[in-house]
Amino acid sequence: MSISKKIFMFLFFVMAAMSVNCVSYLAVGRGETGVDGKIDILKVENRKFDKLKKTLELGSSQNPTKLVFSPDGKYLACIIIKKTVSFVSIKEVFLVVYQVGSWKKTKSVPLGEIEVKSIAFDPKSNLFACSFVQAREGNIHVWKTKNWDTIKKHKVSGEDYSKKIGFTKSGVLVGLNSDDAIVSYKKISMKKPSLTQNRYWKAASGKITSIALSPKRNDFIGLLENSEACSIKNFKTASWKFTEKDIKSGMKSIITIELSPSGKYIGYEKKKDVQKYDLQIYDRQFKKLINKPPGSIGSIVSRQYTFDFEDKYFATMTHGAVEVYSIADGKLQYQYPSDHGPKFSAIAFSPEIKLPKEKKGKGFFTSISEGGLFEDLSRDDGQ
């Protein structure tokens, strides 16, 4: 290739990169009994946190307790609890799905009086799974995201239930049961959907109290607890057992663990006292805790935190704000105050979407083909 051709190619790619905006969203659920619930959508453009983009109004006493974006960036799935305050308190649960970008409600599924334990999309965003308890029985329901029809309803054996579920990179559904056993199910076929238990495993000593999966890895991690301490271990799906060497050991009072989407970073919560937790981020590649200045991260009051899809940030909920930190150095990047509104109840990051920059003189952006997003990115008035 000639020098002139190389220069042309270099300038072409530079101009292409300059003409693209990278946009993602942070969804913040808010709600409590007797107050109108809502989901605030915050825009992150070119890795800069912008002001409020949109508010999804839910109605009185409707609390969004779990939020998750699909890996392809098309959907925001929400578990909404609606409480009826009367002589007898009734708690109805709904699965509500929004189209990302237009923020239109595409599906609302009444689930009845249940207690939702965990929700997850498969890596290809074709399936959505929800584990819950109803009348002391554990259930897992699976929906097909193409039309949001329920394709499988599964009852967990006995009085067990799946307190945490997730999909591996290859699309295998894995769960941690209430009896501290790790189970997996045969891969779900779209033509003849079924949910058949394939593997069942319990630790010879101690118990598994938490698991975490990444959409980019088939192996996952588990928190093994015994009478003396906790250790984070890697679970090999090929051999269906933990590897001998611990990822991190000698820890105490660890509550939950989470994996970043790439699987490189591990988040875990250490119980500080009755209502406070310390959040730590561990780099498993370099085997070290993320550096953080004194006072940042620190104690959190909610046991909900989330990584973004690009391994750049993690977000936590405190008493008065949602706080977003950089994974690279642990520094506070953004703070979204409560402003005396409903309590924060759930948070979730969307994947990053690359959008062409609007031309000067244009007041709006029309659409992109990838992910089915349609929105006016130049407007931030909540419309």
Strand percentage, roughly? over 45%
- Poorly predicted residue ranges: 12-18, 293-299, 360-383
- Spatial gap, N to C terminus: 50 Å
Bulk shape: globular
Overall residue-averaged pLDDT value: 82
Q: Structural class of the secondary structure composition?
A: mainly beta
SS field, number of helical segments: 1
Biggest beta sheet attributes: 5 strands, antiparallel
How many strands appear in the DSSP assignment? 30
Short description:
This protein has 383 residues and is mainly beta. It contains 1 helix and 30 strands.
Give structural notes.
The protein is 4% helix and 53% strand. It has one helix and 30 strands. Strands 1, 2, 3, 29 and 30 form a five-stranded antiparallel sheet that branches. Strands 20, 21, 22, 23 and 24 form a five-stranded antiparallel sheet that branches. The protein has a four-stranded antiparallel sheet with strand order 4-5-6-7, with no helix packed on it. A hairpin with a 4-residue loop joins β10 (137-144) and β11 (149-155).
